[in-house]
Amino acid sequence: MNVRVVTTPWQSTEADWLIVGIPEGAEPSRALADLDAALGGRIGRLREAGDLTGKHAELVAIRDAAPLAAKRLLLVGLGKPADFTVPRFEKACLTAVRQISEKKCSTVAMAVPSIEPAAETAHAPVSVPELVQTIAIAAAVGSLGQGIYKAEPARFPIDELVIVAAPAAPATDVEAAAKRGQILGEAMNIVRDLVNRPAQDLYPETFAQRTKEFAQDFGLSCGVYDESRLKQEQMGALLAVAQGSERPPRLCVLEYDGGREDGPRLALVGKGVTFDSGGLSIKPTDGMLTMKCDMAGAATVLGAMIAVARLKLPVNITGYMGLVENMISGSSYKLGDVLTARSGTTIEVNNTDAEGRLVLADVLHFAVDEGADKIIDLATLTGACVVALGEDIVGVFTNDQPWCDQVLAAANRAGEDVWQLPMFDYFSDLLKSDVADVKNTGTRAGGAVTAAKFLEKFVDKKPWVHLDIAGPAFAATSKPHREGGGTGCMLRTLVEVAAAFDR
User: Fold this and answer.
1) Hey, which end of the chain has fewer CB within 10 Å, N or C?
2) Taking the model in full, what pTM does it have?
């Protein structure tokens, strides 16, 4: 997608579609009034007839927009100015883009709205660069569908996006925001594409090959550890999960050195179970149907590393992706087995479907040994987190509150919904084993927390945040503002963390 910023009047902007936001119950801005005048008062008449209210994400299409330079006009409701926020604006933009991308159109123009929050609102004013970045992200993400194997696509990417900004906006800031939004949107689409691919196409070896190709394209150093090297590294927990599959495991390590030579290093660690049958603790059909998405943590790490490299952020950062299949065969690891993790910790297996934490245990310990100063891991780890927080909120766990506060602040800036859960020592007691140092599961109660307490044992007290993305990483169904399938959630948060790291 080619992105450019212009300052022409809305009515003079050439495009196949011109998308304009309409606030609810507010006086029209000067630009909107001029657009209405150019249309001979059509917008005003739609308002008077009740066909255009400006309610959030409402859509009204004018398919013959003459005498405008654009062929067609799509009016999208922005809601009440008192409720206007970047996430709500993004949802409105995504709804509009998804509407028009059902058919091929080469050029789409989106107008940057002029919204003055009402005095009673608790929301901070939104800057023009924030709006521009949001438009670019929405155009990239909203126009890409999940039907990558369909003969006839249900959605068509936009060839050219024209962002129509006010002449008063600083050109440098606006153009930088447009580029940043494009990079973030394209990185999210890489994550979504990987998550949406079935295990027949995406398994540890092919994921590793794709990672090497992306690393070469975007200037990242890349190391791939095969099964022999993983044995040398004594990754007994990861290897146990992989041993039931014909697909051998891999560990991918991406490195970007954009910070000070002696600066701290941020480690991103992703769970990459490319398919999860549950192993001998086999999942039912409904529970297994979407398990191609169980590598979303690793995909998000890859996407974030690509975005950081493209944005040239001043940070030293390494991404680790532990890649396995959890399958059933005569060589599968079994309930009651005692595994020896890379750290030397022995683990009693009580559930082979609690495999992601076993993979992460070895990769987290490896990241610590490789010199990580602070760590974030991402994993579609527990159904318990979905029960606790629903399908749209990420669970956050930590051993270091100041570090967690930085991650929470980054999520807030990125507009992503997260919630911190407790890490009381009581939950560690639930993991005590009679035959080994630790069990890989506790009780059903507090399952998301016991999983996090298990991971905590392998970070050697380094500042660490665990993000359980089991709910938001994969959308079971489509909504007007969101395509079903992979979502790319938390990528923007990781980039926000990286941008502020070591400052």
Assistant:
1) C
2) 0.96
